[in-house]
Design brief:
The structure holds two protein chains of two kinds. By secondary structure, chain A is an all-alpha fold. In chain A, 76% of the residues lie in helices and 0% in strands. The longest helix of chain A is centred in the last third of the chain and has 35 residues, at 195-229. Classes of the chains: A mainly alpha, B alpha/beta.
């Protein structure tokens, strides 16, 4: 009790002495600023180049054995060999079509269910436990079941990606709908807008930023699941290529395949960035 | 008084020296909980390694490939595992060598079997010769399962792409695919194939051993181990050969009709194998391959495997049999299976 009182007294003394020193017209330094993200494209490139340079140096000096990690030069030449092979286009196109079809189907299904859950309480109460239950199912563990259900053709490979994309899309969509400011909806109601107009003109555009942010996550999930999907009897595909290289301990091809996958991820992320800019011009 | 002190010191020194001489050499042995590794388990359980002054630690993996990787990386001193294309690629980099044999596919024994889906069987896949034009499930390209179908292709002179090989990554996926008819046929270990065909889920077409005998697995050691601790490896092999001789006496018997039968010593060994493989008597009895009495391996067959893998780009061109196999620890067979 007494020590607390003393602290208060100390603080007030400090304040009073401080104001004496600075005088009544003291100039206070501007303390705002910072914490603003500023675009700085070249630093990203410099970081990548620096990392690759350190990696090559470590490999060249013998500190990093090829068994642990092949050098960038080895990976680069494996990548060039891969790209020069006759079946390269069929490898890439097989994977891209699986990712595209799986992601599209999963996203459309997820958007429908997610919007319904955002708008209708009954749909939310009914679907939320099911979606939450589906989310953590490991796709690799249920591959034998998927093979029995759907065979080893494209449908089972697509299904892996659809299932993986669906739940996160539902969750991001319905929370985006949830986060549309209530004030806007109430305003629409007081202006006498129909239910349909409120959904189409306020809720859907208002939830778009959240939905698009969800796309970035689900697109990455689709690429991650590509390798699992191509565990099922895939003759061609980037995932199949990575799996084979791993099985044969051809680590240079393994890393090259992984780089190919992450390059695909970068391209998709860039495309989504363009989509966001185009669709969210109104912001 | 003084004499007694000196005598005491001397006795103390002698006993210390003796204990140093008897300090067991630690050896980490990695492998799978497979019945094909029975000899290794027998040697551990019966103390044959301890008799050679080795302090063995066992570590288990669920596939052959990671064992080879662990031996290469120095995480294991010795591996007891199947011969895969990935292992040959590692051996080609000078990290490990084959030093002794384990399971052979030998006529009369049932280790890996060919099975057909019921659907394909109804449509006419009645024997191994009907495989061309069918979809054949394997774990991975360049795996022993792929090699099994490759040997058939060579034996019967089929076109290289006559059987379409479908990589499914795991035995569980292969079982799912062949049960549902997603693939027409697959190669499965006997302890999986036998219960499935007995239950009517698949049809058994035949056994790899009856078609194309070959060297399936063996003992590998890291290059470091061979170079720096050669006497430890020699002691290990000595103990391992005691166990393979015992395995031979108990399990390597065919009756007059060519059927696999067990000797009178088998009963005593079953509990050991059951314990280390965590399986039942029935599974153990189903899955005992031929293991050479002298722990020999067929070096000519290893060379043939390398040629097959290299021709398909699964093993790097520079990998030769000299880099892969060390023939100085056991007698090796220099003539390939016929």
């Amino acid at each position: 009790m007494s020590s607390a009182l003393k602290l208060v007294q100390d603080a007030s003394q400090r304040n009073s002495t401080g104001s004496k020193d600075e005088g009544p017209e003291a100039v206070v330094r501007f303390r705002g600023g910072g914490f603003d993200p500023r675009p700085n494209a070249w630093i990203g490139w410099a970081a990548i180049i620096g990392l690759v340079a350190i990696w090559q140096l470590a490999a060249a000096s013998g500190y990093l054995s090829p068994l642990v990690l092949p050098s960038p030069v080895q990976v680069g030449s494996a990548l060039l060999k891969m790209a020069a092979a006759d079946d390269f286009t069929s490898q890439v196109s097989a994977s891209l079509s699986r990712v595209a079809s799986g992601w599209l189907i999963g996203t459309i299904m997820g958007l429908i269910v997610g919007c319904a859950m955002g708008v209708f309480s009954i749909a939310r109460a009914g679907a939320l436990p099911i979606v939450s239950g589906l989310y953590p199912i490991p796709m690799i563990a249920i591959l034998p079941l998927l093979i029995v259900w759907l065979g080893i053709g494209e449908s089972s490979k697509t299904a892996v990606i659809v299932l993986g994309v669906f739940s996160p899309t539902v969750i991001s969509t319905f929370s985006a709908v949830d986060n549309v400011p209530r004030g806007l909806i109430r305003m629409g109601q007081s202006f006498g807008l129909s239910w349909r107009s409120i959904v189409l003109k306020i809720i859907l555009p208002g939830s778009l930023p959240g939905v698009l942010a969800g796309f970035r996550i689900t697109a990455a999930i689709a690429l991650i699941l590509l390798v699992s999907a191509e565990m099922i009897g895939a003759e061609y595909g980037i995932g199949a290529l990575i799996l084979l290289a791993g099985n044969l301990m051809q680590t240079d091809r393994l890393v090259a395949g992984v780089l190919l996958l992450s390059a695909t991820g970068l391209v998709i992320s860039w495309l989504l960035g363009r989509l966001e800019k185009a669709l969210l011009k109104w912001r | 008084m003084r004499n007694r002190t000196i005598a005491g010191l001397v006795a103390c020194a002698i006993s210390t020296l003796a204990s140093i001489a008897h300090a067991a050499d630690p050896v980490k042995v990695c492998g799978l909980r497979f019945t094909s590794s029975a000899a290794n388990f027998i040697a551990v359980e019966k103390g044959y390694y301890a008799d050679e002054g080795l302090d063995i630690t066992l570590a288990y993996f669920d596939a052959a490939q990671p064992v080879a990787v662990a031996v290469s990386a120095g995480a294991c001193d010795i591996g007891v595992t199947g011969f895969t294309a990935g292992m040959y690629n590692l051996a080609g980099r000078g990290t490990l060598r084959i030093i002794a044999g384990e399971a052979w596919e030998e006529r009369g024994y049932k280790f890996i079997g060919f099975v057909a889906s019921n659907e394909a069987y109804d449509k006419g896949l009645r024997s191994i010769r009907d495989l061309p034009g069918k979809r054949f499930g394997v774990t991975q390209l360049g795996s022993t399962f792929h090699y099994n179908v490759g040997m058939l292709t060579d034996k019967y002179g089929w076109d290289n792409k006559a059987v379409s090989v479908v990589p499914l990554q795991s035995v569980a996926n292969m079982v799912g695919a062949v049960k549902s008819g997603a693939v027409d046929a697959a190669a499965l270990p006997s302890f999986v194939a036998n219960p499935l065909s007995a239950g009517g889920a698949v049809k058994l077409l035949g056994w790899v051993a009856a078609e194309t005998p070959w060297q399936v697995s063996g003992v590998i050691a890291s290059k470091d181990m061979i170079d720096k601790r050669r006497s430890v490896v020699e002691h290990f092999i000595k103990a391992y050969k005691r166990a393979t001789a015992e395995y031979d006496a108990a399990f390597n018997h065919l009756d007059a009709g060519g059927k696999h039968v067990f000797g009178k010593d088998a009963e005593a060994l079953f509990p050991i194998i059951e314990k280390y493989t965590n399986t039942s008597r029935a599974v153990v009895m189903d899955g005992l391959p031929y293991v050479n009495k002298q722990a020999s391996y067929n070096i000519a067959n290893v060379a043939a495997q390398l040629d097959w893998y290299k021709a398909r780009g699964f093993v790097d061109a520079g990998v030769t049999v000299d880099k892969v196999a060390d023939a100085s620890f056991v007698e090796v067979v220099k003539e390939n299976f016929k």
